[in-house]
Design a protein that fits this description.
Elements: H1 9-24, H2 31-37, H3 42-48, H4 52-74, H5 81-97, H6 99-110, H7 118-129, H8 137-160, H9 163-177
Domain HTH tetR-type: 7-67
Protein name: TetR family transcriptional regulator
InterPro entries: Homeodomain-like_sf, HTH-type_TetR-like_transc_reg, HTH_TetR
Length: 183
């Protein structure tokens, strides 16, 4: 069972590791690559997390904690555009601050079956957007499109180093992808 992350160094390690796991998958991500990404030796990385498996589990768990937080925040809102906008705002803010963790969470859409608890991740997204994908295919596709756009655009915003300018544009793009128009 992964331990809760300490602030600072562990959060940076988890985010960098999550990004690598999301991009390459668990099997193709080496401990050396993980250590290099955070500027540590393998021994230094193992001081923070006892194994690659523990790091992987901690990254998935942190992604789930963040998504559960969003689901809890939007739960009191009625289903509809306002709830969806709030979910997008919260997810975008997390993605701008922790892009690796969000990429790992969204990997469940692009690499089905890699994580045994993937169904829980999908249920959280369905809960946020109040949808039954098998009954609302067009809407499910719009949601995946909005979340995919958010993932790509927040990564670009992080590369450009201008999150403040990008944030409203990302939200407008995602909201539009859901079929809602800005007022």
């Amino acid at each position: 069972m992964p331990r809760p992350p300490r602030t600072g160094v562990d959060e940076k390690i988890l985010d960098a590791a999550a990004a690598l796991f999301a991009r390459h998958g668990f099997e193709q991500t080496s401990l050396k690559t993980l250590a290099d990404a955070v500027g540590l030796s393998k021994a230094g990385l193992l001081h923070h997390f006892p194994s690659k498996e523990a790091l992987f589990e901690a990254a998935w768990e942190q992604s789930r904690v963040l998504s559960r937080h969003v689901a809890d925040q939007v739960a009191p809102l009625e289903p509809g555009p306002a709830r969806e906008r709030r979910a997008l705002e919260l997810l975008t803010d997390i993605a701008l601050d922790r892009p690796g963790l969000v990429a790992l969470l969204f990997r469940s859409m692009t690499a089905p079956g890699e994580d045994p608890q993937q169904a829980q991740d999908e249920l959280l997204l369905n809960e946020m957007f109040v949808i039954e994908p098998e009954k609302e295919l067009a809407r499910a596709i719009r949601i995946v499109g909005a979340l995919s756009a958010m993932a790509v655009l927040t990564l670009l915003a992080n590369q450009e180093g201008d999150k403040t300018t990008w944030r409203p544009l990302i939200l407008a793009t995602c909201y539009d992808a859901l079929g809602h128009r800005e007022a």
